[in-house]
Every structure is written in C-alpha cells, then in structure tokens.
Amino acid sequence: MAELLGTFEQAVLLAILRLGDEAYGRGILHQVQESLEREVSAGAVYTTLDRLENRGLLRSKLAAGTAVRGGRARRYYSVAASGVHALNEAHKTITTMWRGMQWPAKTTR
Amino acid sequence: MAGEDDAMKGAVAPPRWAEALLERLLAAADRETVAGDLREEFVEAVVPRVGRRRAEWWYLRQVASLALRPLADHGALRNGLLALSFFTLLCGCWLAYMEFVLQHDGYASRSGMDLGVAAVGLATIMGRLLHVGARGERWLWIGALALIAIGGSAFAQDAAAGHFEGFVLIISVALVAQGTLMLLTLGRSAKSPRGARGQAS
C-alpha cells in the first residue's frame, strides 16, 4: 500500500484541484490557509509542493511573469493521476476508520 | 485608473535586502517563482490589508520559513549532518583556542588543523543553507575525505596512547561520522527533478 498522505499534503493537493488552471504558489497558499483556517507559512507550502512533486503526485510548468512580480516567472501546478488516486485513498481510509462511529467522538468510561 | 494602480504597485515592494537574501537562500529552480509569488502577495494582498510596516514583518517571516526549508526538507540524514557539523565547528574552535592558550610543542600546526576542522564544519552548514551548487560542493567532497582522515588518525593515535583521552575519542568519531554523512548526502540536491521540468510557456 502506498504511503498515506498527511493532512497538510491533502490540503495542498485539494487546493490545487480547487484552483484548477490558476494553481500557482500564491493561490495555493491562500487556499490552504482557508481550508485549514489558520495562517500557514510559505516555507511549509513550498516544501510540501516539492515533496509531492518528487513523489510524482504533482506536475508543474513555468509561465511568464507579470509586472507586479518584477517579471519573475510563475510555476503552475496540476495534480497527476497518482495524486488524485492518493487523495481518494486517503479519503477512503478516513471514512473506513470512522465507520460505525458517531461524530463528534465522545470519551468512553 | 488601471495605469495609476500599476504605478502604485510598482512603488510598493518588499525590502530590497530581504528580497536579495531570499533569492540567495532559494535553489536556482525556485529563485524566480517563489520570490515572484511572495512579491505579488506582498504588493497585492498584504500591504493593502495590514499596511507597509506589518507587511514587511510578514515578508521577513516568510523569508525565515523558507530559510529553514533545507532543515525540514532533507530528512534525518541531513539534519544529523547539520548537528554534527555544528558540533565539530564548536570543537575545532575550542581546541584551537586551547592550543593557543597552552602552547605545547607543535601547537601551531595542531591549532591550524583544529581551525581547518572548524572551517569544514562551517562550510558544510553554509553549503546546506545557501545552495552552493555543484562547484562549491566539490570542495566539500575534499573536506569530507579530510575529516575522515583526520578523525581516523586521531582515533588511532588516541587508542594507542598511554593515557586515553575521552574527548579526543568523541571528537574523532564525530569527525568520521560527519565526513561519512557528507559523502552520503552531498550532490543529492542536484537530483531534484525540478531543473529538468517545467519549460516556460
């Protein structure tokens, strides 16, 4: 079985899926912050993007920059088929683990 | 109006020195894209939301988070190497200082070697944090072999000596371990697929 995705990795992959063609660093950072409801550092997001890309779950391509970026290129990300599969596996695992449980969980005596 | 907005945005930018530092800390493949993303966020979102001063503080926090990336990104092996490098850097400085204070026979050559050990420790740390590239890493390969030789020889001499010195044993083992970890981890950054992918469209 493939290594299960962590929560942050799932948040990054889902952010890219939500953003579609507009998935580059800045937008991904915003989406991840929104979905996790907390401030997230750029370092954490770019480290995760690198790791997911090295694992073959993401693809990236460069595109021309804009004036406000000082002409610097943008890197756009897309989720590879293996990334979608990993997300589905992660969701399936969580669903299976919670089967038969009530949410929110309560303490047992 | 759009022209005025663009002119305003052009005037607002992160501190130049912080942007230069960020670009120095990033790997070549990320230099443009990450620095561009942060500048765009700074100009279009953070400054309008919190004002210039707090936006600069935000920018510095992002630079710090990216500066620590090599530590988080390279796994236990590289973290171990950084810890050992820091340890041998301190040991090298301390031994050199003690040699200068005590001035036993041959202290000059020994303190030179101690400073060499400290320099390799410092170079390893800086090399990891500043992405020295393949050319710079070539020198670190030489440093790694030198550390193994120095550590091995110190270990052998200590083991054969009449009075056994515990601190020499610890430092010599640390040097051999540092040299070995350097050999195992150097050049790995060049294997990132980034450089080969992502052609500009």
Describe this structure as you would to a colleague:
The complex is a heterodimer of chains A (109) and B (201). Chain A has 4 helices and 2 strands. Chain A has helices at residues 7-19, 25-36, 42-54, 81-98; strands at 58-63, 74-79. Chain A has a two-stranded antiparallel ribbon. In chain A, helix 1 packs across helix 2 (25-36). The longest helix of chain A is centred in the last third of the chain and has 18 residues, at 81-98. With 201 residues, chain B is mainly α. Chain B has 2 domains: 2-67, no CATH class; 74-190, no CATH class. Chain B is 82% helix and 0% strand. The longest helix of chain B has 28 residues, at 75-102. Chain B starts with a helix and ends in a 16-residue tail after the last helix. The interface between A and B is medium-sized, with 30 and 35 residues.
Shape of chain B: elongated
Number of helices of chain A: 4
Largest sheet of chain B: none
What assembly state would you assign to the polypeptide chains in this entry? heterodimer
Number of helices of chain B: 9
Instruction: Flag low-confidence runs of chain B.
Output: 1-8, 189-193, 195-201
Summarize the helix and strand pattern of chain B as letters: HHHHHHHHH
CATH topology of chain A: Arc Repressor Mutant, subunit A
* Strand element count of chain A: 2
Please provide a brief summary of the model.
The complex is a heterodimer of chains A (109) and B (201). Chain A is mainly α.
What characteristics describe this protein?
heterodimer, A: Arc Repressor Mutant, subunit A, 4 helices, 11% strand, B: mainly alpha, 0% strand, disordered N terminus, disordered C terminus
Topology of helices and strands:
The complex is a heterodimer of chains A (109) and B (201).
Chain A: H1 7-19, H2 25-36, H3 42-54, E1 58-63, E2 74-79, H4 81-98
Antiparallel strand pairs in A: 1-2
Chain B: H1 2-11, H2 16-25, H3 28-50, H4 52-67, H5 69-73, H6 75-102, H7 107-130, H8 133-160, H9 166-185
Helix pairs in contact in B: 2-3, 2-4, 3-4, 6-7, 6-9, 7-8, 8-9
